[in-house]
Amino acid sequence: MKKRFCYSVALGVVLSFACVTAGFAQKAKPVQKTPKQIIFAVLSDGKSLEPIAYLDKGKLEQTVNGSDSAEILAAFAKSYYKTGTTYSLVFGGASAGKVTVKSANNKYECAPNTANITVSAPKANLRGNVMALATNATVKNKTIERRRPTVVERREIESLVNGIYATNKLTPKTLNSQNLTVLDVDNNGRPDFVGSYWVDVDKSTRALVFFIAEKGSDGKIRVTYSDFRTIDQGSVMSGDIKDVDNGIYHELLLDAFDYDGDGHSEIFTYTASFEGAGFTAYKKVGDKWTKAIEVSNYHCGY
């Protein structure tokens, strides 16, 4: 910043003040910060953009929250949500098209750190639980690997899911799925599976399973990460367990993205709730999946 020098001159009982800016009275231009690399979730049938994390030197960092101050949200929108700003769409772990910002929502009460978007991606049919990622970081993968399971694959996966329920002393009469998707996160030509299932425990209780599974070199599919949870009607904010049946509180696949360039894509998920959204990124460390980041984003009161 340039210094300002003020002088006061007395003429009898009359005082006059003159304030002169050094450098011929020219205002210093504000410093424009380069936006950080960032990863977004592409939601609402490809109509909404919501931040997950900043990307700094191969590490994920928490970004702005919907509960942040108006000043913070306005600054974020100015940096990332200018009308016409474009991001790479990540679908099947690869660059699959473009995301273009239409408008920011920072002046609205609900989800003020989100934006309205359009998506141009002929190979990505974003609808319902088929979601994606967007980023301003470099996406190296060019080959899209994302599909539905075959009948044989689904049958084998559901046998494994039933095994998870059996371990938790449940024998499902009906196995329900929110989604089951095939990826290839390590580019080894063998399928990886990400799925979300649920069963009725009784009229007011549901048991949810989120898992990651991999097909080994021996041709067998094995679950390499799983999360089992039960939810009863008393813990549902709406008081209606049917909202869980419709997707609330289920952890669902967004997509996979090799954000740190190690040749193995990380898996990103989304969990909807009544007052916001949860986002998790899973990273393979050795033979185990670990959580690289887990964040929640406030939307508004239910």
Q: How would you describe this structure to a colleague?
A:
The protein is mainly beta and 302 residues long. The protein has one domain. The protein has three helices and 18 strands. Strands 3-4-8-7-6-9 form a six-stranded antiparallel β-barrel. It is globular and about 55 Å long.
Question: Which characteristics define this entry?
Answer:
single chain, 302 residues, mainly beta, five-stranded antiparallel sheet, 3 helices, 47% strand
**What is the CA-atom radius of gyration, in angstroms?**
25 Å
What's the number of extended β-strand segments? 18
Strand content: over 45%
Number of domains: 1
Overall helicity:
10-25%
Largest sheet: 6 strands, antiparallel, barrel
Based on Cα principal axes, name the global outline.
Answer: globular
Spell the H/E element sequence.
Answer: EEEEEHEEEEEHEEEEHEEEE
Give unreliable regions as ranges.
1-32
- The whole-number mean of residue pLDDT values reads 90
First-residue to last-residue Cα separation: 45 Å
| Global structural class | mainly beta
Write the layout of secondary structure elements.
Blueprint: E1 4-11, E2 14-21, E3 37-43, E4 48-56, E5 59-62, H1 70-80, E6 86-91, E7 94-104, E8 115-120, E9 132-135, E10 146-147, H2 151-167, E11 176-183, E12 192-202, E13 205-215, E14 221-232, H3 242-245, E15 251-257, E16 266-272, E17 276-285, E18 288-298
Summarize this, please?
Helix content is 11%, strand content 47%. The chain is mainly beta and 302 residues long. The protein has one domain.
